[in-house]
Amino acid sequence: MIVSTKGRYALRVMVCFAIKGAGEYIPLKEIAESEGISQKYLESIMTVLSKAGFVDAVHGKGGGYRLNRKPSEYTVGSILKLTEGSLAAVSCTSQGPSACGRSACCQTKPMWDRLDAMIDEFFEGITLADLLEKNEIK
Fold first, then answer.
1. What is the reported pTM?
2. For residue range 110-133, what is the model confidence (pLDDT) as tens digits?
3. Is residue 22 part of a domain?
4. CATH number of the CATH domain containing 15
5. What is the pLDDT of residue 99?
């Protein structure tokens, strides 16, 4: 599993919001400059986060983005799954049209399923609040 820049940047931005607090809206330009992310690329990430209800958005003068929940209510897993689509370690454990036709008889599939569960458990066990606590992730 390789987390793309989209997933990594979304996570960085969400941490940025968590640091700033829930009160103020942060303009997209300010976020882009502070995080060193292209404003155009950041727009596409913010659209995904906003449509999913992870952030509130206000357009126009004085507008921007902010978290709409406490940092402890966002898991790293939920942010990465939203932006990445899947955290599957291998494509054969995917569901839907890309699912492997051999999954019913594959001797290695249980191992991959177990790895996927471990990855999911790890990322779902870390919140934005945890990341603010000097990265003391257990």
1. 0.87
2. 999 999 999 999 999 999 999 998
3. yes
4. 1.10.10.10
5. 67
Beta bridge pairs of residue 26 = 65
Using CA atoms, how far apart are residues 125 and 98, in angstroms rounded to an integer?
28
Number of domains in the chain: 1
d(CA 28, CA 33): 9
- Looking at the DSSP bridge assignments, the partners of residue 58 are 64
Domain interval for residue 73: 5-88+127-132
Contact, 68 vs 104, CB < 8 A? no
The one-letter code for the residue type at 130 is D
Three-state secondary structure along the chain? CCCCHHHHHHHHHHHHHHHHCCCCCECHHHHHHHHCCCHHHHHHHHHHHHHCCCEEEECCCCCEEEECCCHHHCEHHHHHHHHHCCCCCCHHHCCHHHCCCCCCCCCCHHHHHHHHHHHHHHHHCCEHHHHHCCCCCC
What type of residue is 36?
Answer: G
* Distance of alpha carbon 96 from alpha carbon 39, whole angstroms: 33
The pLDDT value recorded for residue 95 is: 67
- Which residues are CB-neighbours of 97 under 8 A, at least 6 positions away? none
Please name the amino acid found at residue 34.
S
